[in-house]
Amino acid sequence: MPAPGSRSRRSTAPTSGSATVASSLIVIIGDEEFLVDRAVRRLIDETVGSDRASADVLQVEAAELDGGRLATLVAPSLFADQRVVVLRNADALSKESADELLSLCRRAVDDPTLHVILTHRGKTNRGKTVLEDVLGLGARRIDCPRLTRTGERIDFVRGEFAAQGRSISEDTARALVDAIGADVAELAAACAQLAADTTGRITADVVRRYFRGRADASGFAVADAILDGERSVALEQLRWALATGTAPVLIVGAVAQGLRVLARVGSAGRGRRPADVARELGLPPWRVDRARAQLRHWTPTAVAAAIVATGAADLAVKGGGVNPAFALEKMIEDIDRARVTR
User: Domain DNA polymerase III delta subunit-like C-terminal spans what residues (predicted)?
Assistant: First the structure.
């Protein structure tokens, strides 16, 4: 079973015993490392089962192979009933090693004790020929593309809960993504933890209460709250961040960075596709989506006034003021006032 968030299909290339090929020859394509690693682990578990002692599992990086080494590494074993070869990042294979890999994959088609799992980062022409050749043998394909959009992460979170027999709304999934951030591994861990520790319906309020005080309540959490127009939340996050040791200068820096993103996205115009704006500004698309949502609370004049307030706080926390905590609270009040009176 592919990992939630990944997509799986079996090649329709005409081969004899195609179901057997699909279980002994598998290609994982994508650069979302957590999903790739989880897919590899699950495939090994499916192949080997509980009888690990009678299986020989070999994992090797393609970049570490030189001519003839792959054949040596996968030589038949006298003691293993099943052999699983995991070749990671096939896009880094040399031409000679690619030929050896293709030969190994042809052996796997006819040898029920040999299983080959191949990973390829995709989005590159390197290793494309060997990838197409392996798929042409009838290999099963699992896609694990990087989750770059907020909507993709929300779908991933909902899939994680569905896999555990739970369901959550889109709003609840969005609250979890907002609380945890963009790291897919952390999102998966949070989903597992929340599903295990709660019963009944999981709502956005449950998520917020559960992850309140998380280490992620840092300068960026303060910045997101004040840019969202949530003054009281921003103050609460500020006090928590200071109490847990976040340096005042980092908090000011996060707010300044958020304001710069607002200014840049705002000047790019609203009629353009987020992906085009993201490419032009060098931002992830989800950050453009978030900034556009935040800009509903702002005008260019208000953003400019907030930048001035942030500059004053920056001076204060770097030695120009007596009390950094007071300077940060004043920054939040001044930014909120600029937003409200825009």
Answer: 219-332
Query: Which residue, 258, 277, 207, 216, is CA-closest to 241?
Result: 216
The CATH number that domain 150-210 falls under is 1.10.8
Structure tokens at 169: 């709304």
In sign, the C-alpha dihedral spanning 265, 267, 268, 271 is positive
pLDDT in tens, 201-254: 899 888 877 776 554 456 888 888 899 888 998 998 888 788 767 778 888 888
- The amino acid occupying position 76 is P
Whether pTM exceeds 0.85: no
Q: Which residues contact 83 (CB under 8 A, 6 or more apart)?
A: 55, 56, 57, 58, 74, 76, 77, 113, 114, 115
CATH of domain 219-340: 1.20.272.10
Backbone angles phi, psi at 179, to 5 degrees: -75, -35
Cβ-based neighbour number of residue 44 at 10 Å:
18
Class of domain 7-143: alpha beta
